Amino acid sequence: MSCARLTDFRFNLHLVSSGGKSSSLEMGSLVHTILEWYHKSLIAGKSRTDAIDIGFAAGIEYQNGYLPTNKYLTDESEVGIVNTSDEDVLLAKNTMHEYFDYYKHDQWIPLFAEHVEQLVIYEDDEIRILWKAKLDLAVDTNNGIYPVDHKTMKQRRDSLSLNNQFMGQVILMKSRGIIINKIGFQKSLKASEKFIRPIISYSADRLLEWSQIILPFWAKQLLAYDEIGFFPPNFTHCENKYGFCQFKVVCEADTGIREETIRLNFIKGKPWEPHD
């Protein structure tokens, strides 16, 4: 929806930055790793104390990258944290210690963590749309079962319900809402201000419009791009709340040196395919 050229670069050509993940992504991935193994350990019957220890042990493996002796990080392509300062790595870990202390009386019952769900959510004479997503977490609360999406941030931001990821996960889970588990890295904020869990709710009408009208339109648009062999750039989406698009340097290059610009700044990564 944001940019056809971005779609082509990321999901057809599988281009990723040769410099690795940004610092914000590395910090977020570290937190996700700790939470993943914390929740998986709880589900396996471990005590909360043991689960926290396992979560941090997995975080250390993510920090150091893949080794044959790893117990938790088994993806051989993971190189570890390379673009984040030691100070910020420590900040992320200390934040997670605060998080676990703040939620020491947590009543959530985790059902699964980092789990892939898929469902055919639209079908007509032309196309069938299989929506597939890797959910950070699903929990049973006192008010029902919800998908949970972990969001780390250095600045406070309101959650926006106009989010394809969120609506897709709600449909996959057959729920009417999703919990955003916000984890802030701000040193100046109290725990109650940087650890919040807002629920985004959706009406049946909004979910129906998204899955049966909006999504099919864009799926057919994608097929049209592929058929004509041209993925046009959309220059109104070159900057977002996280900064500039990573392919900005490519789009700013003249056509004659664009391929060389890609070669110098990007490498071919793994095809995007969510798996447990």
Describe this structure in words.
The protein is α+β, with helices and mostly antiparallel strands. It has one domain. The chain is built from 9 helices and 10 strands. It is globular.
Question: What's the helix and strand layout?
Answer:
Layout: H1 4-12, E1 15-17, H2 23-43, H3 48-64, H4 86-102, E2 109-123, E3 128-141, E4 144-153, H5 164-173, E5 177-184, H6 191-194, E6 195-196, E7 199-201, H7 204-228, E8 239-240, E9 243-244, H8 248-251, H9 258-265, E10 266-268
Parallel strand pairs: 4-5
Antiparallel strand pairs: 1-10, 2-3, 3-4, 5-6, 5-7, 8-9
Helix pairs in contact: 2-3, 2-4
Name a few traits of the molecule:
single chain; 276 residues; alpha+beta; six-stranded mixed β-sheet; two-stranded antiparallel sheet
What count of domains describes the coordinates? Answer: 1
Element-by-element helix/strand order = HEHHHEEEHEHEEHEEHHE
Taking the alpha carbons of the first and last residues, their distance comes to 26 Å
Annotation field: number of helices = 9
Residues in helices, as a percent range: 40-55%
Mean pLDDT: 95
Main beta-sheet annotation: 6 strands, mixed
Rounded to the nearest angstrom, the radius of gyration is: 20 Å
Provide the β-strand percentage band: 15-25%
Q: Catalogue the unreliable spans.
A: none
Q: Structural class of the secondary elements?
A: alpha+beta
Shape: globular
Brief account:
The chain has helices at 4-12, 23-43, 48-64, 86-102, 164-173, 191-194, 204-228, 248-251, 258-265, and strands at 15-17, 109-123, 128-141, 144-153, 177-184, 195-196, 199-201, 239-240, 243-244, 266-268. With 276 residues, the chain is of the alpha+beta class.
